[in-house]
Amino acid sequence: MSTASKQPAAPQTAITPTREQNYTEWYQQVVRAADLAENSPVRGCMVIKPWGYALWENFQRVLDRMFKETGHRNAYFPLFIPLSFLEKEAEHVEGFAKECAVVTHHRLQAGKKADGRPGLVPAGELEEPLVVRPTSETIIGASFAKWVQSWRDLPLLINQWANVVRWEMRTRLFLRTAEFLWQEGHTAHATEAEAREETMRMLEVYRVFAEEWMAMPVVTGRKTDGERFPGAVDTFSIEAMMQDRKALQAGTSHFLGQNFAKASEIKFLDQAGTLQHAWTTSWGVSTRLVGGLIMTHADDDGLVVPPRLAPTHVVILPITPKPETAPAIHEACEKLAKRLRELPYAGRTVEVEVDRRDLRGGDKMWQWVKKGAPVRVEIGPRDLEQGLVSVSRRDRGVKEREAMSPDALAGRILDLLEEIQKGMFDRAKAHVDRHSRKIDDPKEFRAFFTPSKPETDNAPTEIHGGFAWSRFCMDPAEEAKLKNELGVTVRCIPLQGGEDPGPCILTGKPATHRVVFAKAY
Amino acid sequence: MSTASKQPAAPQTAITPTREQNYTEWYQQVVRAADLAENSPVRGCMVIKPWGYALWENFQRVLDRMFKETGHRNAYFPLFIPLSFLEKEAEHVEGFAKECAVVTHHRLQAGKKADGRPGLVPAGELEEPLVVRPTSETIIGASFAKWVQSWRDLPLLINQWANVVRWEMRTRLFLRTAEFLWQEGHTAHATEAEAREETMRMLEVYRVFAEEWMAMPVVTGRKTDGERFPGAVDTFSIEAMMQDRKALQAGTSHFLGQNFAKASEIKFLDQAGTLQHAWTTSWGVSTRLVGGLIMTHADDDGLVVPPRLAPTHVVILPITPKPETAPAIHEACEKLAKRLRELPYAGRTVEVEVDRRDLRGGDKMWQWVKKGAPVRVEIGPRDLEQGLVSVSRRDRGVKEREAMSPDALAGRILDLLEEIQKGMFDRAKAHVDRHSRKIDDPKEFRAFFTPSKPETDNAPTEIHGGFAWSRFCMDPAEEAKLKNELGVTVRCIPLQGGEDPGPCILTGKPATHRVVFAKAY
Q1: Which candidate in B106, B186, B255, B472 could, as Cys together with B199 as Cys, close a disulfide (CB 3.0–4.6 Å)?
Q2: CATH classification of the domain holding A292
Q3: Do A424 and A481 reside in the same domain of the chain?
Q4: Is the pLDDT of residue B94 over 90?
Q5: Residue B48, CB half-sphere, CA atoms under 13 Å: how many?
C-alpha cells in the first residue's frame, strides 16, 4: 500500500482496556473514543455530542417513518405533570414517584443560601408541585379524554418525541441517565382486540428496527408480572444480548387495558350509543438504543456503526505529503465524493465526508476507525498516479486495504455497505446463538450464571452466562429470590419457541413455558 | 359545479369573531378551528396537536437543512442548569432568574399535603437547586470550555433542538407559553470578526426562511441597548408585521462578544501560542413562528398555510352520494393521489391526503378550509362521468372552483403551488408596505399610534398604527418613556435604509438613523 509507510505504528488496540479485560470500562472508553457523549456538570445528565446525536437523528428518521407508515401522527405534550395527575393510577404512581424531579418554585430572588452566603434562592412557591415527566400516560390521558367522544374518533394514534427524567443514583452514558431522549407512542382504541393488535404491531416495528437497521438480533416476548410497566396489563419487550452476554431491554410495548382510560376518563359513545372506556396502549424506545448498538457491535478499536444508520458511510482521506501534488489529490477526493453522494442508499443517499483537516494522516485515520465509519478511502500521490484509491472496511482489520479504481468503487459501494450490514447482523446473531442454551438441569442452570473466578472489587467481572431458555412456573416469589441470589431475572416469556410443558427449573412444579433467564442491564 | 348542491349553506365566515371585530379572539379561534394546539391543565404549557406539530416538523426540516448547509451540527445538552451556572454572567442572571422553573427535590413520598390531606409530598431535597433551562448559554459554555483547547478546534458550530421554560403569567398559544420548543445555535470563534460574521450569516438564514418559506416579509435590524439579550453585546432580529399591524420578533441572532467565554472560561491557544478567550454567538427561533404564520396569513375562514411548509398540499375529497358509484370514485381519487405524490416539490414530494372519513362532504370540506390546505380537489359522480376533477385554491374564495382533467392538474400542480406561495408573500408584503411610513412630524407620529376610538374593556382594540420609520437619538430613557405612554418600542435599527441623519422624532436632538417604531407582541 502506497501510504502505509506514513501511518504511525498502530497500537495493539485503540481501546484500553479491551472487552475481555474490563467490559464496563471498555464501554466508557468507546463512548469517549468515538466522541459520542460525555457526563455533564448536572448529576446523571449527559451531553450528547455531535457524532452520538447524528446516530440518534438517524434512529429517529427511520423510526418516525415506520410510525407514520403505521398511521401515527406526532404531537407534543407538556414537560410538567401536576402531582395530582401522577396519583390517579395507583400502580403507576407507586412505580414512578420514587425517582422524579420535582418543580416547587417558579422564580429566583436574592436571599441567603444554605451556607449563609448571599445569592439567589427559590421563590414563588407553586400551589401544587409539578413533576418533570418520567413518562406521559397521565398528561396525555387528559388530552385524550377531550379528544375522544365518539367511536368515530378512534383509533387515536399519537407519538411524541421528547426528553424525560427519571432520577437515577447510578448512571451510565446512554444506558441509564437521569434525563434521556425517547419517543413514546400513545394510542386509544374502541376494543380490547384492536388495542392488543396495536401493542403487537409496534413490538414488531421495534423488532424490525433492531434487526434490520441496528443489525441487533432480539428476542420478542412478554414480561412477567414482576417486570411489567407500572399500570399496564401486559408489557412486551425486545431483548438483545450484549457482547458480555447480559441482556439489554431495548424497547417496550404496553397493553394498558382500560386502566389509564379509567384514571383519565377517556370515554366514547360506541355505535350502539353506549358510553364506554377506551382501551389504550403505550410504547417507547430511547437513547438507550445507542448503548445497545455500541455493546452489540463495537470492538477493541472502537465503535462499529451499521451502514444503514451511519451518519457518514464513506470517509475520504486525502494523503498529501507534498504541497505540489495536494491540489490534484483534493480534486480527486471531491470528484469521488460527488459521485458517491448521488447514489441512493437506505432511504437517503450515500453520505460522504472528505476529511481535509490539518492533522497527521495516521491520527485522522484512527479517529474514523474509533468512530466506526463503515468505509474509509485514502487517496495519496501514488494512488493518483495509478488511477486507484485504497479502500478499507471497518468490519475488517484496520490494516486490510483493497486498491480499486474510483469507477469500481462507485459500482460496488452499495453492495459493499449491504454486505457490511449483513455481516454485522450475522456475527451478532452467531454470538447470541452461541450463548443461548436450553437448560433443564438446575445445577447446570446455576453453573451457567456463576463466574468460575470469584468477583472482587479490583478484578473485573468475568464474562460468562448468556440466555438460559428454561421452564418457569411464573411464581413471583421464586423470581425475586433468584434475582437476589444470582442477579438473574426473567427477561421475557418468548412469543416464539417458548411453549414447552415440563418441570420448572427453580421449583420442579409443572410449567407450561420456557422463559429467557439472563443477567441484565 | 357538479357537487355544489351537496354543500350546506356556507356561513358568512368560518371564524367568528372576524379579524376586524376582535383580532385577539379571532387568533384563538383560528388556532382552535385549524386544530393546531390547545391549553393544557399545566398553567402556561400548551399541547401541540398533530396539525400544528406537523407544521413545526416542516419548519424544523427546512431550518435544519439550512443549519447543516452552513456547517452546523446538532448536539444535546442537559435540561437542568445548576443555579450557580446561571449566576456566572451578571446581566444574564438578571434577565432570566425572574421567570424560571426551579427543581428543588428528586423524590416524592407519602406525607401530608398543604391542605392536611394525606398524599405525596416532595422529598430528597437537592443540595443545589436546578433551573429548567430558559436558554442554554451557560450549560453549553461548560461543554465548550472542555471542547475548545486550540485554534484548531475553532470554529465550533453547534445547534440544539430542545424545549425551554420561561415562567409566564399571561400566555397565548404559540406566541407566549411557559414551555416552548425551539432551536438554539451556539458557536465559538477565534476572532471577533468571525463571530460577527456568523451572527449576520444566521440572521440571513432566518430572513430567507421567513420570506421564502413562510412567505412572511421581515425587516432585519439591530436591537437597541434596552432590548438586547441579557449578556449579549449586540442582538439582531427579524421583525415581521402582523395583520393587526403589530410587530412580531420572529428570530434573534446574538453576538455575545467574550462575555460568556469569560463566564464559562472558553479559552484557546492561538497560532502564536497565546491563551485567548473565544468569541461566541447564539441564535434561535421557536414555535412562536407558528403564531407568526397564523397572524400573517390566516383569514376569516381559518388558517392559510404557505405551500412550501404545508403538511398536506392537496386534499382529495371523494363525493359519494350513491353506494354504487363509490368504488369507481375512490379508485379515481387514489389514482390521482398516486400520480401527484410522484412529483418533487420544495425538497420533498407533493403531499396528498385522500380524506375518506365518514362525514358529510360539506363539513369535511370546511375542516380543510379551516386547516388551510393549499389545494382541495373534489371528485363526484358527474365529475367522473365527464373525466374531470374540481379544483379549489385556499387563497381564493371558498366557492371558487375550476374543473380540469386529472392530466391537466398533474401538469399544473407544481406551478399552482408556487403561484399560491408567491401570491401569499406579495399580499403580505403589500400589507407591510401599506402600513410602513417614514414619519418626521412628532404629531403625526403620536397620531399614528393612537386609536381614534378610546379603548374600553368590552370593545376590542381598534386596528391602527404599523411601522413608523422615524429618527431616534438612541436615548434609553426616552425609549422607556415612549413604551410607557404609547406602548410603542423600537423594534430594530434596520440594517437597510436606516441611515438618514436628522432630528430625533422624540427629542429633536441630532440622530444618525431611522429606526422602526411599533407596538409589538
Answers
A1: B255
A2: 3.30.930.10
A3: no
A4: no
A5: 28
A180 lies in the same domain as A42: yes
Last residue of a domain, one of B410, B429, B448: B429
Q: Look up cell 418516525; give the residue.
A: A64
CA of residue A308 relative to chain centroid, distance: 15
The answer, for B132 touching chain A at a CB cutoff of 8 Å, is yes
Place of cell 432590548: B227
Which site among B38, B46, B47, B183 would you substitute to test the A interface, given the most A Cβ atoms closer than 10 Å to its Cβ?
Answer: B47
Number of cross-chain residue pairs from A and B with Cβ atoms under 8 Å apart: 194
Q: Which domain holds residue B478?
A: 437-518
| CB-CB under 8 Å, A120 with B86 | yes
State the pLDDT at residue A5: 44
Of B48, B74, B122, which has the smallest distance from its Cβ to A102's Cβ?
B122
B313, B282: one domain: no
State whether B246 and B321 are in the same domain: no
Where chain A has pLDDT below 50, the residues are: 1-6, 10
Residue B502 and residue B441: Cα distance in Å, rounded?
A: 12
B-chain residue closest to A165, CA distance: B79
A442/B contact by beta carbon, under 8 A: no
- What average pLDDT score do residues B202-224 get? 98
ipTM of the complex: 0.95
How close does chain B come to A71, measured CA to CA in Å? 12
Q: Is A363 on the interface with B (CB under 8 A)?
A: no
Residues B268 and B312 in one domain: no
Average pLDDT over every residue of B304-308: 98
If one counts the domains in chain B, the total is 3
In a domain, A289, yes or no: yes
By C-alpha distance, which of A313, A320, A424, A321 is closest to A376?
A313
| pLDDT score recorded for residue B1 | 37
Nearest to A421 by CA among A486, A346, A517: A346
Answer whether residue A117 is part of any domain.
no
Q: Does residue B369 carry a pLDDT above 90?
A: yes
Task: Return d(Cα A252, Cα B145) in angstroms, integer.
Answer: 38
Q: Note which residues in 178-207 of chain A have CB less than 8 A from chain B.
A: 179, 181
Residue B278's nearest CA partner among B185, B392, B146 is: B146
User: CA-nearest residue of chain B to A106?
Assistant: B101
Contact A135, A77 (CB under 8 A): no
Q: Do A82 and B163 touch (CB under 8 A)?
A: no
DSSP β-bridge partners for residue B467: B436
